[in-house]
Design goal:
- Two copies of one chain form a homodimer.
- Chain A has about 400 residues and is α/β, with parallel strands linked by helices.
- Chain A is built from 15 helices and 14 strands.
- In chain A, the strands form four sheets. Chain A has a seven-stranded mixed sheet, sandwiched between helices. In chain A, strands 11-14-13 form a three-stranded antiparallel sheet, covered by helices on one side.
- The longest helix of chain A has 21 residues.
Chain lengths: ~400, ~400
């Protein structure tokens, strides 16, 4: 017999880089009996989902919808539609997802110009502006919230430089959307993609994306066909738009889940939701610092509220600590990737996982694990500091 | 308030071209609280899913797994990995999915040679063999079960011709896998893809695929990079294989669902499951013919058991009938596509939807709707014939 049939799965407190906790309401919506993907009732759910996605993304873009794939499919959908062979494309790289963006652009035959920065700090916007100005740049791709480092990348100067040179801007908001403000229209972002399993607190499997009219016009003007049929936004426009032309079979159950998750966001309100993410992040940082730990991202303004990268104290075996948290208490946190492997933990406080109780829980659990590693931590200091921060905010 | 929040969704009997009915066990598995995608417990679910997929697909191929997208993403994954610009690729086209295959091959820069056939009949295998022999054919792509026409395409002669010329064979088994025998190793198929929402009776959103070692070797020998990062089977090998290298965040909940759906198939047994699909198809056809209707596919050996294409009687407005079935009784059946639009209905009996009761239900409902359209139907003839067929089989 298979595992699922013989034993129940363990319960986990999801404080890693995603998936985040999914509320019971969303799980129940997902488990509704299915209806057809061209059923009038389902088409209405699609319409409502688009409307709610527009709200979360701060946009009136008609082409705001969910790609039937994970966040990386959203990345690929953004790139494959905008980029043509030979295009000069500037990619900002200071983490795993910047590297991935560059790789996807490269596979589309473009001339990739990377602007690299230290992992764990934002990339200097003026270096990006300089790269944009260095040639006939068609597209600039940048990660807003770098999940691998916990960095919030400032976008305004980059977008202004792109605009001045007629380049389109693609923004990765996988780990920011729903936790940090993301305002496509106000910030003048052309294409944005995200994932469902981070601050939207929906299971992984869908990628919200939005293309503005400038981006859609660029797609229409292409001299070569979009290399992907599955992710071709022109064909997807036929399905999500008025024509309802059959393209793929929508992932019905995941669509139910996203609809419910977005309904919950609307009920909470976007601003209160962002404030909640900020408050819990702030308390976690207060607790970690009171324990003598150091955040990977030095400038508080450049720290993600949703994903907290903290340096592993000297002499501590980070994998042992993570393993203990998982097996003793069922708490998942993430390790570092690439050059930060072994050096940081990544503690996610995303969507339904961003709660006061989870902050207290993870601080208490970390403290106990660190003391077992003979790392000097004042007993109770982290939890006390966090609770103090809650009271003050 | 959104629709989902204010009213429950209607119940539907899913007898269209997919999604099919999803059993409550699968819905409950899907709604389990999430665990992380790199959690040891989740990795075990991935392993077990691969093992069960191998069983359903009749293969020992190591690279048997689920693409994080719908069936059309499975098609794209198959094509984008095997095909390089300039390759001569023979595509068999006699329906929507053949057309789609050709289009995907074209977007990969290949030299596409289509072998076209009438929609509603299999394509002559010797014409395909001739096309394969007509040049340095690298890949042959063929739809086993053409969802748009209800045709089961014979594969053996096509595979033999491909083998004789060193061409790889890609087979679309979206609407056959789990309902008809599909035996990759015995039939010597190199790459096969399917979808979850047909005879596997899992919600749409994943695409089972399998690549044999010959296909994996071809991928390794490519002189150009795979154009898709998301669907690159080399990278996916790193994630599904022993390395467990992070690629994308697996669609956890859908993976739970697929695992449970495959467990149910294993419990039923593959042969009994195929026999059930055959028996219910046979009874439906007996009923439709007793009502004076004609199947689109003339030769019974070329009819899909999972998807029954029946000609709309002269003078009947097919859309009115479909609309009545949906709104009066909550029964979904499909209409025709392309040249068959308005001319056929497509009645799916897939997975959990393939039951005796559904055969009786749809025959009774169709009879009533046809009589409202003043189409002469002997009262009760269809249902009686189907019940007779059940008794005889």
């Amino acid at each position: 017999m298979s595992k699922a049939a013989r034993t129940p799965l363990p319960e986990r407190v999801l404080l890693g880089p995603g998936p985040s906790t999914v509320d019971g309401r969303v799980l129940r919506a997902m488990s509704r009996p299915l209806i057809g993907h061209l059923d009038p009732e389902f088409l209405q759910i699609m319409d409502e989902t688009q409307e709610m996605l527009r709200h979360v993304m701060g946009t009136e873009n008609r082409m705001t919808f969910a790609i039937a794939g994970t966040g990386s499919a959203g990345m690929e959908a953004s790139i494959v539609n905008l980029v043509e062979p030979g295009d000069r494309v500037v990619v900002v790289v200071a983490g795993v997802f910047g590297v991935r963006l560059a790789e996807q652009v490269r596979r589309n035959g473009a001339d990739v110009v990377t602007v690299e920065g230290e992992w764990g700090a934002p990339v200097d916007p003026s270096a990006v502006a300089e790269a944009i100005e260095g040639g006939d740049t068609k597209v600039v791709a940048v990660v807003h919230a770098e999940t691998s480092t916990g960095v919030l990348q400032p976008l305004d100067e980059i977008i202004a430089a792109a605009r001045a040179h007629g380049a389109l801007v693609v923004v990765d908001a996988v780990t920011s959307l729903g936790g940090h403000p993301v305002r496509l229209d106000e910030w003048d972002i052309d294409v944005c993609y995200s994932g469902t399993q981070k601050c939207l607190s929906c299971p992984p499997g869908l990628a919200p994306v939005s293309f503005n009219e400038r981006a859609m016009a660029r797609v229409k003007e292409r001299s070569t066909p979009v290399r992907s049929w599955y992710l071709d936004v022109g064909l997807l426009d036929g399905y999500w738009g008025q024509a309802r032309a059959y393209h793929h079979t929508a992932p019905i159950s995941m669509a139910f889940a996203l609809h419910e998750a977005l309904s919950m966001i609307r009920e909470e309100g976007l601003e209160p939701r962002h404030a909640r993410h900020h408050r819990n992040h702030f308390a976690l940082v207060a607790g970690l610092e009171a324990m003598g730990m150091r955040m990977q991202v030095e400038n508080p303004d450049h720290r993600l509220w949703s994903l907290n990268a903290v340096r592993v104290p000297d002499g501590v075996d980070e994998a042992v600590v993570r393993g203990e948290l998982l097996t003793r208490l069922g708490i998942e946190i993430g390790g570092g990737l690439g050059p930060l492997a072994g050096q940081i933990w990544r503690i996610g406080l995303m969507g339904a996982s961003s709660t006061e109780n989870n902050v207290v829980l993870v601080l208490g659990a970390l403290e106990a694990a660190l003391r077992r590693q003979e790392c000097a931590v004042s007993p109770g200091a982290g939890v006390a500091a966090a609770i103090g921060a809650f009271a003050a905010n």
